[in-house]
Please model this.
Amino acid sequence: MALIVQKYGGTSVGDPERIMNVAKRVVDTKRDGNQVVVVVSAMGGQTDKLINLAKEISKNPSDRELDMLVSTGEQISVALLAMAIHELGEDAISLTGAQVGIMTDDVHTKARILDIKPDKMQEQLALNKVVIVAGFQGINIQQDITTLGRGGSDTTAVALAAVLKADMCEIYTDVDGVYTADPRIVPNARKLKEITHEEMLEMASLGAKVLMSRSVEFANKYNVPLCVRSSFNRSEGTYIVKETNVMEQPVIRGVTADTSEAKVTLLHLPDQPGIAAKLFNLVAKYNINIDMIIQNVSEHGYTDISFTVNKNDVPKIKSILADLTQEVSARAINVNEDIAKISVVGIGMRSHSGVASKMFNLLAQAGINISMISTSEIKISCVIREGEAKQAVKVLHEGFELDKE
Amino acid sequence: MALIVQKYGGTSVGDPERIMNVAKRVVDTKRDGNQVVVVVSAMGGQTDKLINLAKEISKNPSDRELDMLVSTGEQISVALLAMAIHELGEDAISLTGAQVGIMTDDVHTKARILDIKPDKMQEQLALNKVVIVAGFQGINIQQDITTLGRGGSDTTAVALAAVLKADMCEIYTDVDGVYTADPRIVPNARKLKEITHEEMLEMASLGAKVLMSRSVEFANKYNVPLCVRSSFNRSEGTYIVKETNVMEQPVIRGVTADTSEAKVTLLHLPDQPGIAAKLFNLVAKYNINIDMIIQNVSEHGYTDISFTVNKNDVPKIKSILADLTQEVSARAINVNEDIAKISVVGIGMRSHSGVASKMFNLLAQAGINISMISTSEIKISCVIREGEAKQAVKVLHEGFELDKE
Model:
């Protein structure tokens, strides 16, 4: 008898009919001879509705009270799913994060899980029940309700799978797996049978919104077998695996495009020790995440520094850097929001040279200009003009022959 | 410094604007130099909305899961009210029934409170916070969420006031107190300054929907000073007091009309020992509450028995009694839904005779026929035709001079 953790997102439980569908799927899994723990998110739109209520009362509501408020969304889903499973003739029990004992730190609205007690779940599984756990939520040591922030229900599912030593953690979503590229851009993009944790991490942080990075990191750290599947059909999903499971590694696993970033350039900075440190300390102080950083070769004692940030942070970064520009007598700040970051990801490039030059050649042949480059062991990213992003993805997908197995 | 428990019902917190109004009231009470514990119900309509969701999934949802579901309603209210109080510059913390430690029995959807731990509330009050507690809910010993059934938030408020030894428990509602009669029927009905627990109990169970009986019983048992006030204006409400507080007792406190009952008559029953017992055992087995019971004087070894039940129970009672009628060879069952129960209530009638005859005379003078009578130490009820109920209330209100202090 295998123990399977299944996670269903907000779209999958968006209305009573969909909840019944999820219930059927859960019951099928149970009747196939498995123990099942289910993690659910709030019904689609519910969390936003609650946050809007809060905003009508306060522009800046307390994080503790926000967590108290929005955690009701998942509590509603678990109760309804339990009723739906009962209706299909199987026993089931719903549990809040607090009832399971999902202990987190104190950071309301983006808490981190510290510890999970498996006892209550194991006891209910032993009674032949489906155990349904509210995703996205936990409690801190004062018994205050906390929430885990974006992608929190995925993290809950993976964490439960880890403590329960589950045989599989299945993440059900509205796409049916991880593709070599976004199928809306590349119609012949291929669904991957498997992908390594590291590749998935790069794909996730590069704009493939299938799984949140945090849950993948967690799965990697605690060795949780993970897969991504569609809740709307029964097709096999994508397995996220340890590198060692893969017999023969293709060079490139996929291509992604990310248009959420802007490029900020400080021109004509004095090339002195400590200037870059000063700059990025300041940025970190305001909790702004920096992605790529490039420093030009120095000329006549001056240099330029470019970096990318999320477009939402542009107004903040402009006001922060205005003073600094004066202080270090940089010539100007230049912000370009018309950019896209195109990446090729693949664990195989560790052992294959020539990936970067092939990527640059493919883009050059298509007349696409590269303005920034950054590389890691398993990915290469290029910043190009936003309007050329889709063409670039197509060109790279074809050039690296990702449509072929 | 006084400790005041305030309870606001669903209409009082029906939307963000009303929640802000409640917050203002709470903050005013605090700034008058009091410690304040607030109990709130779910936003008006929210509980029904959740129950309808459940009914879309299951005709007969599990009580445990129903409690899990509907208890979110109060959790939403407490979080929003905390935000509103913060917005007005006072510190506040919201707590669920579980977080307070409101321990109940296992009877989901109509649990009874067994124990409440005052520690957490006292600790937060000592930190100068307004403590906001979700009404209507608790947990059982397995940590399952339970709800207290109809009027549960009133019960929560009175119970908290009892364990905290509060100086006053104020129940805010959409009427501004207890009246000598329903002001919609009797325009010159007078708001009572005070009423005894016993009278309030009779009034509550007789159709004056201001306070649920359970909370009044609780207040009486634990000696909690209680008052009913409007959340929409600042007028003084009605105090519910121990008998001994009242210096001079008026004979009659109020007149009520209840049109929710039907009269069931079994005609021509054999007048033998055990027949009535058989009848009412059967009715009790199906959880049907009986109110008034009358047995006619026996003639020729046969008698008639009449009793009143809630109109909702009429279909059930008909099917239950069909068999019995045959078994005991009664002549027929007669159901009359066209009735109203008119009552006069007052602790003073203990020491004043003639109340009953005055009541019957007043009704007779108005040409109103009485078909059943029942009395207790502090009330007299008459069943009349439903269409004559309003007239009866007016006649009795005037005849007993209830418009005068």
